[in-house]
Amino acid sequence: MTKLAPILEAFFTDRLLTQRQASPHTVAAYRDAFTLLLGYAFERTGKHPAQLDIADLDAPLVAAFLQHLETDRGNGVTTRNARLAAIHSLFRYAALRAPEHAALIARVLAVPSKRQHRPLVCFLNREEIEALLAAPDQTHPTGRRDHAVLLVLTQTGLRVSELTRLAIQDVHLNTGAHVFCHGKGRKDRCTPLTAQTVAVLRSWLTERRGHDQDPLFPTRRGASLSRDAVERLVAKHTTTAANHCPSLRGKTVTPHVLRHSCAMALLRAGVDITVIALWLGHESPTTTRVYLHADMTLKEQALARTTPPDTTLERYHAPDALLTFLNDL
Hints:
329 residues, mainly alpha, DNA polymerase, domain 1, hpI Integrase, Chain A, 16 helices
């Protein structure tokens, strides 16, 4: 066994699990990245993973591996950069344990991330949210559960992983009603609840019953909803809601889009961007600024403030029915 194998094993057991206390999702993502990298190195060098040394994973091989991800595996820039971040993390850890490879490690760490296009965030307006909340059939227990799930997502902006980990004891419906969650980066936070959400959750808990440690939103067998299950129920009810709100047909609605919708609702209500960052559990308000770019209404309001007093600010409307049709495509 060469020096790479014990360093890689210690990276997972010491660095990720012990020092950083990384989440299972992070560990799985790093595991997949190194599984692909070692498999690619085997194809290039003919050495089995246990025979590889740090010197075998030099900067040219890493760069070729990243190109392989995009061209042969069809990965996007986001996935490519995530794999590179895992590699950089390993080599920063290896720098302290294999100083004789300092020059090689420095060259690998110098491999840059690729710049990527950042599309505007997708979000739902008030009419679309109301149509989505009305979609579940609340004459059945599953429909009442789904309605509560959708309402909590759109009002609190929880990540889907945070929602699926909620237990009954995490919901507090008395004075100062809020939901407590253990969020990304091992950060705990409390998110206040509106009167509407409190009423729905109180009714749901009466029907749900169970113990404090039981999942708030269970499956029919009593287990916690999975991420895939939440994504399916959001997609299912979006399809139903689109029959009454046609604008939903042009949007791919996911649980994260509902998180964006919560942020946009807060922003339009005049809530400060730093408060929204705390609400969503963002590490920095810089992440939250993407919502400022997504809302044309806010930009038009800003433009109106700079318009001379004697000027009427109006949006252009096509004067012809055919032009209107073409502009609406």
